[in-house]
Design a protein that fits this description.
Layout lengths: L8 H12 L17 H19 L4 H5 L1 H15 L4 H17 L6 H17 L7
Helix pairs in contact: 2-4, 2-5, 4-6, 5-6
Length: 132
């Protein structure tokens, strides 16, 4: 049998191992986050405001004063759509903080609530199914 290739038992095992290996995206979330309850949203929002204030050295008083309304709008939107991911809430909320911080004339609660709703719908439209 010179010149022919003989497959031994170990060759079959190695081949079998390589056949079951799948490429996986390790950056893909492992768990699905459930929506937050009102208390969780209040605490998370307060922490996000505090971090944003410290990083950008400003006082986010208009957003802080609109917090109850923002969370009420978020809950209403979640009821309408069935689900808004925690990730989208955070993205929307931080986007509102950015816009309000960069536009000092934006101070009324109604303007801030409308801005939040606009941002939440904007991010919901671009929901990545891998990140919910």
């Amino acid at each position: 049998m010179e010149g022919s290739f003989h497959r031994g038992h170990s060759d079959v095992i190695i081949e079998a191992v390589f056949e079951v290996i799948e490429f996986k995206d390790l950056r893909k979330p492992i768990i699905r986050l459930d929506g937050f309850k009102k208390d969780n949203l209040m605490e998370l929002s307060d922490r996000l405001i505090t971090m944003h204030e410290e990083v950008y050295e400003w006082e986010a008083k208009p957003v802080r004063e609109s917090l109850e309304g923002i969370i009420a709008r978020h809950e209403a939107n979640a009821e309408l759509t069935g689900y808004i991911s925690p990730r989208n809430f955070v993205k929307s909320f931080i986007s509102v903080l950015d816009v309000v911080q960069q536009n000092p004339e934006l101070r009324s609660e109604e303007e801030i609530l409308d801005l939040f709703e606009e941002k939440e719908m904007e991010f919901e439209d671009f929901e990545d199914e891998d990140w919910v």
